């Protein structure tokens, strides 16, 4: 490699000298991540290392930082979108839970009314056809049993609904906090990368590889909406079988 500096490199390094040899800094060792003068380059320590001019190394790293900066901006916008969606979902699942609760209560009232009507109809038929009090008493006991089972199913569904609603809200809030934290990290990273891309060659090369690896690791974190349980799973099947038993 030529020891003569180009005018461009002279402009970059005219105020930067090697502390060991007091020679102008011309080169950059990518292995050790340090700047070198011509005498440093000739030492055994860097003999087999990948070394290039400071300007070339700076431009290579600048391109890499710019690519990561673009990715960081895209991921930041995606994170903001997910955060908005999660906040909207919180309101939606609360409304959905209330609607589902009203539906369960309405279905319970309807089933109970049908059960009472079926009971009255059967009692009327028994009075007309049979005078056996034991038979009528058995029918009443069966109706009471079915009504009790209906009430138990109703209460179980409401308990399931409340439990699933709380779990869904917990998941959404936890994900909201996680995404908010990620947004802060991405905003900080974006600012750092914007500053890095605008720095001069020597400043940009300082801890360049470490900064790249750290930035990439932050971008590896996955962002996705919280997985919540469908409230329809709270519904208990078996209402219709009650009426078949009664009939």
TrEMBL record:
Pfam families: zf-B_box (PF00643). Residues 54-89 form a coiled coil. GO terms for molecular function: identical protein binding; zinc ion binding. Gene3D superfamilies: Classic Zinc Finger. Residues 13-54 form the B box-type domain. The keyword Metal-binding applies. Keywords: Coiled coil, Metal-binding, Zinc, Zinc-finger. This is Tripartite motif family like 2. It comes from Rhinopithecus roxellana (Golden snub-nosed monkey). The gene is TRIML2.
